[in-house]
Design brief:
The complex is a heterodimer of chains A (110) and B (114). With 110 residues, chain A is mostly beta strands. Chain A is 0% helix and 56% strand. In chain A, strands 2, 4, 5, 9, 10 and 11 form a six-stranded mixed sheet that branches. In chain A, a hairpin with a 5-residue loop joins strand 9 (85-92) and strand 10 (98-100). Chain A starts with a strand and ends with a strand. Chain B has 114 residues and is mainly beta. Chain B has strands spanning 5-7, 10-13, 19-24, 31-38, 42-50, 53-57, 64-68, 74-78, 87-94, 104-105, 109-113. In chain B, the strands form two sheets. In chain B, strands 2, 4, 5, 6, 9, 10 and 11 form a seven-stranded mixed sheet that branches. A four-stranded antiparallel sheet of chain B has the order 1-3-8-7, with no helix packed on it. Classes of the chains: A mainly beta (110), B mainly beta (114).
């Protein structure tokens, strides 16, 4: 079983839709949770960073962590064509490496 | 401030050869991590260097090795290349602590093994 599971999609939504991206994990020791966005032919860039359970909002993006269910989510409100990218979840244990999901490919159709 | 740079951007090698990839971190960053990205496995951690010392290592065979220089620049070497080594190799730098500091990724080196 992989440490982090993520539905690869692809996901296609109309402009303005609310997008929900999710990851599940198996290691209860994970404490730091991140979402990265990766455009084609680019390296991943950090979108959201949360510590332990709870919600964090940044503009149109909201990250949720539910440690009891070992489940994290990223919501994108009012999605734009520029949001079309691959979204990667990642998580880590203090002092240890990152574990990434395989990524979900998102296309926002104008 | 300049971002993370990786050279070369593209590389084509044949089985059995070896390859060296280079990464220059953001100025002031002392931690450099390397990842392999493939469509099926996603991003997999190779190793992390901090102040010229390997601090963390992923589950890759010994053919994959790396080093870090005193100026924090890092190189990754893959010996006896196999077809399955074809991937995007990403380097990421951070200030210090891999699990808490923000990692900034370079654009990657696309390696194709024929």
């Amino acid at each position: 079983q992989k440490e982090v599971e993520q539905d690869p999609g692809p996901l296609s939504v109309p402009e303005g839709a609310i997008v929900s991206l999710n990851c599940t994990y198996s290691n209860s020791a994970f404490q730091y949770f991140m979402w990265y966005r990766q455009y084609s032919r680019k390296g991943p860039e950090l979108l959201m960073y949360t510590y332990s359970s709870g919600n964090k909002e940044d503009g149109r993006f909201t990250a949720q962590v539910d440690k009891s269910s070992k489940y994290i989510s990223l919501f994108i409100r009012d999605s734009q064509p520029s949001d079309s990218a691959t979204y990667l979840c990642a998580m880590s244990i203090p002092g240890n490496q990152f574990y990434f999901g395989t990524g979900t490919s998102l296309t926002v159709i104008p | 401030k300049a971002g993370v740079t990786q050279t070369p951007r593209y590389l084509i090698k044949t089985r059995g050869q070896q390859v060296t990839l280079s990464c220059s971190p953001i100025s002031g960053h002392r931690s450099v991590s390397w990842y392999q990205q493939t469509p099926g496995q996603g991003l997999q951690f190779l190793f992390e260097y901090f102040s010229e010392t390997q601090r963390n290592k992923g589950n890759f065979p010994g053919r994959f090795s790396g080093r870090q220089f005193s100026n924090s620049r890092s190189e990754m070497n893959v010996s006896t290349l196999e077809l399955g080594d074809s991937a995007l190799y990403l380097c990421a730098s951070s200030l210090g602590q891999i699990s808490t500091d923000t990692q900034y990724f370079g654009p990657g080196t696309r390696l194709t093994v024929l």
